[in-house]
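Pair request: fold both.
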Amino acid sequence: QVHLVESGGGSVQTGASLRLSCVISGRTSSSAVMGWFRQAPGADREFVGYITVRSGSTYYRDSVKGRFTISMDNAKNTVYLEMNSLKSEDTAVYSCAAGSVVAANTRGYEYWGQGTQVTVSP
């Protein structure tokens, strides 16, 4: 079992930055990838990006490339999502997830955090 807890969300204005954290505990050895997802009101959950546990390779959805960065601190068992130049369309509940298969969709992930709200206003 893997337990994930996100933090760092909040309400900011367009152009601001936020850093989300995801603390990982439990049986982490089975996870190959850590992903970030988001879900806006009335919309489906969508993939934001992932980082592979072994190599630290990252991959992002096109709309956040160049603005968002995912990193991992193994000593702290924490994954970060650094978000810069935030836009109103980034408003959503952001969740981290742990998966055994590297994937850019929800199907590859077995464990999920509860999510943290990010609201970006003009």
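--- second member of the pair ---
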Amino acid sequence: QVQLVESGGGLVQAGGSLRLSCAASGGTFSSYAMGWFRQSPGKEREFVAAISIGVGSTRHADSVKARFTISRDNAKNTVYLQMNSLKPEATAVYYCAAKYGGPSSITGSYYYWGQGTQVTVTS
């Protein structure tokens, strides 16, 4: 059983930056591909970024490419999401998730989920 705990959310002005962290425990972190998703009120949860088991392959949603970067530190059992040039439409609860196999943008392919961290971007 893997437990995931997100942190680093908060209130930021448009154009600012935040770095989200997701700490994993209870499992072999290096065995899982990791993903970040977000959900705004009234909307479905959407894919943001994913990273493979090894520090090699990443995927980013088109809406965040060149502004958001996913990374992981297997020694620290942590995955990160660096978010730059934030826009008000990025306001959402951000969730990290773990899955077996390769990185994916499909929400249903992830087996473990964190509780989420709120990100609010003001204009």
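Observation on the second member. The first strand starts at residue 3 and ends at 7.
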